[in-house]
């Protein structure tokens, strides 16, 4: 008999406090893998009678898993999770063509077979002129001889475009090829030039160095969980942006960062969203259907309590990051001001969450964990003038929000 997936009270409390560490991150990865496997079962049960080849592809993945469990780490890949969720929703809606979604399982099977050394006749379908092998790369259809191509022959072809690693000491790839890498508020960028990749590697290396030196606990959990960064097309030349898609645990999207410091903070911010998205797979924190809307100091629109919870959790991590970065001499002044401003914003928003009456019992425990961490940050002594400026700015933001929204 299958047992339901659970998180221990200790891990739940650690995550609620805004942290996690490698053990919690690995547990969340297992949770999301469980979700992907359930979605895969739903996809097969819904469609295999009309497309028997789906069962053959699933059998190939299962044999690869049996032969070499590490080879099927790709089922935990963020983009494979995104594929499973998007495909399941498409089946549930019963609208639109499913062929491209379902054919992607062949690409997953082909990649798994290659990595585990399983002999299998699987030909991934082409999409938009490319044959994509999840977690590996893609090759132009011009490289396909006849109707078949394997990952081994694709990798040897001059038209092969592999995923590129961002940092030798961290397992994060720059994903600019996967068909399931979208879903952000701005489009995902297409294949980057070598010069653009070098730029990303440079800023990532500097940001990663900052995290390891000044925020080692954050670096450890990001290292355990972050697998994929999706470059985004900017919608403004003057502002860097980042975003997380809930289906893709272990990934986030970003435009070119303004600086290594800003990117280090962005990584903490987006990985907080990753953790909460994964936790929400298991625990409902807010009561469904609650109609209240609230002031979020980082947004211009009124937010539902679920969105406010996400913002509070993300910016609790940001406040912690700025506090740690105050020890970096080159950014001490900026980090101190940002820390003061961010903790004040989170305090206001968390008060609204806790007073909303919209939290489930699990949500109450989660909010209490955030409050304990935030109270610790609020107790950190800062120059009085910096604190006054932070609260004046927050008051100005609230007045502007009230004029806009009533």
Can you tell me about this structure?
It contains 13 helices and eight strands. It has a domain at 283-406. The strands form two sheets. A five-stranded mixed sheet has the order 4-5-6-8-7. The chain has a three-stranded antiparallel sheet with strand order 1-2-3. It has helices spanning 9-16, 21-47, 53-67, 78-93, 99-116, 151-155, 194-214, 216-225, 260-280, 305-325, 332-355, 361-378, 384-405; strands at 130-133, 137-140, 161-162, 164-167, 170-174, 228-231, 242-243, 251-254. The mean pLDDT is 92. It is an alpha/beta fold and 406 residues long. α10 (305-325) runs antiparallel to α11 (332-355) and α11 (332-355) runs antiparallel to α12 (361-378). The longest helix has 27 residues, at 21-47. Helix content is 56%, strand content 7%. This is HEXXH motif domain-containing protein.
Provide a brief overview of the structure:
It is built from 13 helices and 8 strands. The protein is α/β, with parallel strands linked by helices and 406 residues long.
Please tally the helical runs, counting DSSP H or I stretches of 4 or more residues.
Answer: 13
Unreliable spans are none
Fraction of helical residues: 55-70%
Number of strand elements: 8
Mean pLDDT: 92
Instruction: Please provide the ordered H/E string of secondary-structure elements.
Output: HHHHHEEHEEEHHEEEHHHHH
Briefly note the structural class of the backbone.
alpha/beta
Distance between the termini: 54 Å
User: What would the principal axes of the Cα set say about the shape?
Assistant: globular
Beta-strand fraction estimate: 5-15%
Largest beta sheet: strand ordering = 4-5-6-8-7
Assembly annotation: single chain
Rg, alpha carbons: 22 Å
- Main sheet: strands, sense, barrel: 5 strands, mixed
